[in-house]
Amino acid sequence: MTDLGDVAQLSGLQKLLSEYVVTFLSKAEEKLNAADAVSTGDLLSSLGYKITATKRGYRIDFSALEYYKFVDKGVRGKGASSRNSTSPYKFQFITPSKKHKEAIEGWLNRNTSIANSMDVSRYGAMGRERRAMNPAQKVKTLAFLIARKMKREGLKATNFWTEAFDETFADFGQKVSEEIGKTVTINLQQMASDLRQGRGTIIPR
Question: What does the pLDDT read at residue 149?
């Protein structure tokens, strides 16, 4: 991710846009860390941007791993006790996928002290799931149970992306207008939607 030191070498509207974008990504990173939603660090390292000059102005594009939107908005669960009723995303099946279980296994193996202290019954273990097991078996069982619980209850929203965008770009239209010397109306809701959908957004110059 480009830092403000790099931005200082730019000028005019391009510099203004870069300052806003770098500030936005910095806020998003801070909020993601504050929400304790960082596991491998892959999502953080994927956050980036590109500003491209076009005939109409400058095009802004953001980049992030696809699942960032699920971390931001959360996911509605399949069960009656869903912890998220407002997310546009919803789990389709109760049974966890292999990829889902393996991701949680990886986290548990990276945090062995936490895994060792966890009680499988807390995550809905029943019958054979509560039998005595070695550490490797416990990790696999916990991964399945946690994934199933997540599917039933859903994932809470962190709003790390949404809040960072709203806070950063609140006065964006005004500052762009001042920079180019004419009034520009920027629909922030449309801009946010375009960036989320990977369409990019054009800022006139």
Answer: 87
